[in-house]
Amino acid sequence: MTVSGSWRYLEYPRSTRPGSYLYEPAGSIHTLHVPPTNRETTDVWFAIRGANLNLDEQGNVESVWDAAFLIDVYLDLCRKGGHPRPAVIGL
Q1: Given this model, what pLDDT does residue 39 score?
Q2: CA distance 21 to 24
Q3: Which of 13, 34, 44, 74 is 20 to 30 A removed from 22 (C-alpha atoms)?
Q4: For 29-38, what is the mean pLDDT?
Q5: pLDDT tens digits, residue range 39-82?
Q6: Range of the domain at 35
Q7: DSSP string covering 9-76, please?
Q8: Are both 36 and 53 inside the same structural domain?
């Protein structure tokens, strides 16, 4: 769900705005884009179920991201940025 700002996938014409909800079915391929014309921070809440396969230009699996991996990355970025450990649902 988009909380503030806007974003879209380069492969689709529609942009999301605050209050928008987007469901991504398995097998969808997309590239996240935040337009430089945004005048406020783009704040989005993503719910992750299963794993996200990130592909290279040839279609080979480059990395696999699941919820546990992304929580670890997020908490590490908070720590490196000097921010206190946030309350994360699911831990």
Answers
A1: 92
A2: 10
A3: 74
A4: 90
A5: 999 998 888 788 888 889 898 999 998 888 988 998 999 999 99
A6: 1-47
A7: ETTSSPEE-TT------TT----EE--TT-SS--EE-----SEEEEE-TTS-EEEEEEHHHHHHHHHH
A8: no
Asked if residue 16 lies in contact with residue 6, where contact means CB atoms within 8 angstroms, the answer is yes
User: Could you give the angle at the alpha carbon of 12 between the alpha carbons of 15 and 60, nearest 5°?
Assistant: 125
Dig out the tokens for 30 from the structure: 């997309």
Q: What's residue 67's pLDDT?
A: 84
Final residue in a domain of this structure, among 31, 47, 63? 47
pLDDT value of residue 18: 94
Residue where a domain terminates, one of 14, 32, 47: 47
Domain count within the chain: 2
Residues 59 and 43 in one domain: no
Give yes or no: residues 40 and 55 share one domain: no
